[in-house]
Amino acid sequence: MAEKLLHVEDLNIEFHDHLTPETVVFDFDLDMEEGEIVGLVGESGSGKSMSALAIAGLLSRHDMKKRGSIVFEGKEILNCPRNELRELQGDEICMVFQEPLTSLDPVKKIGWQVEESLKIHTQLTPEERKARALEALKEVELEDPQRVYDSYPHELSGGMRQRVMIAAAMVGNPKLLIADEPTTALDVTVQSQIVELLKKINREKKTAILFISHDLSLVRQLCQRVLVMKHGYVVEAGSSEQIFNNPKEEYTKKLIAAIPKCKETGDDIEVGEKLVDIKDVCVSFTKRKGRATEKVNVLKHITMHINSQEIVGLVGESGCGKSTLAKSIIGLIKTDQGSIINQESRTQMIFQDPYGSLNPSKTVQFIMEEPLKNLTKMTKEERAALSREMICKVGLSEEYLTRYPSELSGGQRQRVCIAASLMLKPKLIIADEPVSALDVTIQAEVLKLMNELHQELGLSFLFISHDLRVVHQMCDRILVMKNGEIVEEGDREQIYNNPQHEYTKELLKSAGLL
Questions:
Q1: How far apart are CA 165 and CA 126, in angstroms?
Q2: pTM for this model (two decimals)
Q3: Do residues 487 and 480 make contact, with C-beta atoms less than 8 angstroms apart?
């Protein structure tokens, strides 16, 4: 048996930044051996990230009380002096976060940021640091490491930025890598690549990995052992095989049951006439390079349609043009050529980040009624009655109308966004990655709600997602986009069971569906 790398015992974390103290982690225990990969799963607010931050020594030392023990390589680090903790942080223990764009400094080049821990923890010369940084960028399989080294974060794609974060974490060869939701916002192919990269790092460098995720499919692919958290407690722990094949706790069974399944055949409703008809649409943007400008073609001769009472899936990697097409349909982006005939003038959109799309300074009721004030002549009483009706339709009680977005959970905020999209009673809703940031159980609830609204109100959806399991569960017909073009189109069974285009096959393989 390898030497024990990490021993966490009886960890309790209590916040004191409110009138009443709030405990967020109770009696958390974890042992990790050198080179082991352990998964930590559970819904938002379950205590996963708090436990990980405590292990990384990143919890604030103010406004909170910590009790228990965290021993790393024989050294107690939960309450050790800050200078001793700094010797481990970024060197022996490193962390990769969910959103690399907010974790990376936007005004510093990538090379500077990858080298930062080397400046703190080593005596290497500038030339040696640069050589090690370039090697680290190459190790995470970034093409042209020198170009990445000289780039700013905004000049890289999401997948490239996440690889940079992993390179920065691994540049000093740490013993423990904590990965907190590192693939949540990434496309299915990039997710698969990041998981393979973590496996390679673990295999070649013997780095132990604590992998935190709400995507149980990825946890199953990557982790040897799994801990399941709920309301601050570890409710079940065991080998990956045991947890997924023979879960003992009802909560674990609920999480596994919520993993998107393939939609049963024969449950479609009859579609109607064309609601949206798009022919030969092209969209380009002008990109500035120094003093010169460059034309970038984003949509290339797109022809497609959406029928009434139909759910159409739109899949493809980041940057392929999915969101640009959605914004063109709704009239937010002008087209260069072609035609878009949209029979529904009040088409609504649901966005990926509900918190970012809700006004934080207004109540739910104000947010929901705002379009009615601008586009209808309804009285105050009529608007209030409709807001009460719609908030109940999405499974929330009327009391939520008086709340602000900050007082809602992620799932509740997404339900509010759906309720707001229904206020003008549209026939078409464009849902742009509406569940990718949600926990698996909340994701299942929101998808169920959207399906019920589709059935009950006869709504049409353009459903944009990188999660091919969710698309299979939701959609009747699917469009596959790559580099601004629709490379394949067909009904659900055709796309998933008999894909024709190599790119479609690649997407399905990355999702483990082919």
A1: 20
A2: 0.75
A3: yes
